[in-house]
């Protein structure tokens, strides 16, 4: 931060040192230190511009002066209304949680993802989410959709496993609704516990009967502790029925600017306030009850009600539809990888400390990694196609973007 014009240099330096000491002794800062010391073994000696810790390896407070630190390093500043927003070292997160490729692995160990969505009007969104999961590195990707959508989605790619199980109101008589809904849940439940993460909402539509059926599926997934990414029309569903995600630490909401506005108005009974954006996001997560929310925008801002993290890597100025679907599929894969990474920690004491005391949130890590990968893929796609960039162009660069960050081991 530059010295204000006309300010006393000694008083200004004293003020900055005082602020630094206050932040360095804050509970939030100490919590980040402990959390990341547990997760990252043998950190290197910190460079002179960073705090004397490993806190910045995954998160660090973001800085108002980008020129004050090297590219890709930790940037530090204070968030609005005293809440700290941490700029994630997203590449470090991706490298840490992405599983290595080796010959001992079998099909399914790199992730099994399911997308719940797709109706006769919307077939592209569930395809984008499901194929993105495969392109990131999941072994299997399923789509549960209506019968009208199934053939269309199957024709997009033979790589997807498509289940024509869901039904809309027009195809079900009123006196059959209860039995058909029960049958749908039974069919989906046969598969549900096999999945590492599900995505609810891409191409779902707003048919009342279909939404009721998906509500039952979400309740079942919650009982089984299956991480659930909620996007698109899934956000419309939960905004009108918050009980589906209230108190669920395995739920991830990924609203865009309009979806976020509706969510804030519903839960907090007020409008979005950009001056206290970080504090408001934290409060929103807390009010819903421990969910993780990724507020999409110029920077993707992520909170689980305890910390606020952002990914501000520039992606693409091209805002074609479907990028949110890529993000939801990517977040699902990285979330499953992050959970496995934390659960498979080889040190029993470290594992217990991380999981039970520090509560490293794999949902947050999944959001960080998914956000970065989409942004890098969008940047590469735009570099090639400029104004004609569409979602399928971005999907084709997911693999290269991940390889650039975390090369596959042969």
Automatic annotation (TrEMBL):
Q: What cofactor(s) does the depicted protein rely on?
A: Mg(2+)
Record-level GO BP terms:
nicotinamide nucleotide metabolic process
> For binding ATP, which residues are annotated in this chain's numbering?
296-300, 315-324
SUPFAM superfamilies to which the protein is assigned, alphabetical: Ribokinase-like
Give residue ranges for domain YjeF C-terminal. 90-405
Sorted alphabetically, the keyword list is:
ATP-binding, Lyase, NAD, NADP, Nucleotide-binding, Phosphoprotein
InterPro entries listed in its UniProt record:
CARKD, Ribokinase-like
* Pfam families in the cross-refs: Carb_kinase
Keyword set includes ATP-binding: yes
The record's GO molecular-function terms, alphabetically, read: ATP binding; ATP-dependent NAD(P)H-hydrate dehydratase activity
Instruction: Locate the transmembrane regions by residue number.
Output: none
Q: What EC number(s) does the entry state?
A: 4.2.1.93
Out of the domains of life, which is the source?
Eukaryota
Which sites bind (6S)-NADPHX? 203, 256-262, 325
Q: Which residues form the signal peptide?
A: none
**Which catalysed reactions does the entry list for this protein?**
(6S)-NADPHX + ATP = ADP + phosphate + NADPH + H(+); (6S)-NADHX + ATP = ADP + phosphate + NADH + H(+)
Q: Which residues form a coiled coil?
A: none
What is its biological role?
Catalyzes the dehydration of the S-form of NAD(P)HX at the expense of ATP, which is converted to ADP. Together with NAD(P)HX epimerase, which catalyzes the epimerization of the S- and R-forms, the enzyme allows the repair of both epimers of NAD(P)HX, a damaged form of NAD(P)H that is a result of enzymatic or heat-dependent hydration.
Its family remark reads: Belongs to the NnrD/CARKD family.
Checking HAMAP family in the record gives: NADHX_dehydratase
The record ties this protein, via NCBIfam families, to: yjeF_cterm
UniProt-recorded name of the protein = ATP-dependent (S)-NAD(P)H-hydrate dehydratase
According to its UniProt entry, this protein's organism is Urochloa decumbens
């Amino acid at each position: 931060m530059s010295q204000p014009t006309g300010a006393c240099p000694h008083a200004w330096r004293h003020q900055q040192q005082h602020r630094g000491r206050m932040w360095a002794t804050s509970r939030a800062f100490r919590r980040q230190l402990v959390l990341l010391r547990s997760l990252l073994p043998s950190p290197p000696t910190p460079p002179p511009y960073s705090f004397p810790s490993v806190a910045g390896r995954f998160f660090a407070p973001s800085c108002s002066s980008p020129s004050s630190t090297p590219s890709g390093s930790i940037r530090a500043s204070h968030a609005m209304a005293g809440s700290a927003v941490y700029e994630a070292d997203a590449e470090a997160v991706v490298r840490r949680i992405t599983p290595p490729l080796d010959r001992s692995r079998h099909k399914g160990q790199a992730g099994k993802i399911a997308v719940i969505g797709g109706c006769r009007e919307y077939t592209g969104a569930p395809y984008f989410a499901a194929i993105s999961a495969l392109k990131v590195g999941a072994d299997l990707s399923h789509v549960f959709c209506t019968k009208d959508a199934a053939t269309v989605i199957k024709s997009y790619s033979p790589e997807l496993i498509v289940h024509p199980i869901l039904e809309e109101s027009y195809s079900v008589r009123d006196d059959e609704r209860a039995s058909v809904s029960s049958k749908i849940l039974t069919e989906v439940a046969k598969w549900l516990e096999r999945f590492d993460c599900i995505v609810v909402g891409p191409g779902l539509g707003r048919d009342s009967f279909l939404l009721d059926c998906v509500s039952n599926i979400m309740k079942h997934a919650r009982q089984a502790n299956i991480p659930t990414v909620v996007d698109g029309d899934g956000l419309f569903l939960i905004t009108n029925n918050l009980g589906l995600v209230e108190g669920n630490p395995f739920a991830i909401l990924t609203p865009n600017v309009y979806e976020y506005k509706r969510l804030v108005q519903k839960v907090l009974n007020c409008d979005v306030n950009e001056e206290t954006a970080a504090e408001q996001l934290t409060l929103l997560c807390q009010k819903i009850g421990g969910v993780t929310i990724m507020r999409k925008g110029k920077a993707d801002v992520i909170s689980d009600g305890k910390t606020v993290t952002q990914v501000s890597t520039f992606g693409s100025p091209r805002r074609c539809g479907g990028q949110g679907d890529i993000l939801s599929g990517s977040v699902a894969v990285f979330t499953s990888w992050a959970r496995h990474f934390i659960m498979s920690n080889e040190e029993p004491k470290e594992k217990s400390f991380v999981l039970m005391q520090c509560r490293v949130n794999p949902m947050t890590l999944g959001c960080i990694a998914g956000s970065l990968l989409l942004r890098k893929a969008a940047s590469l796609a735009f570099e090639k196609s400029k104004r004609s960039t569409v979602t399928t162009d971005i999907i084709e660069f997911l693999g290269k973007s991940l390889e650039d960050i975390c090369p596959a081991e042969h």
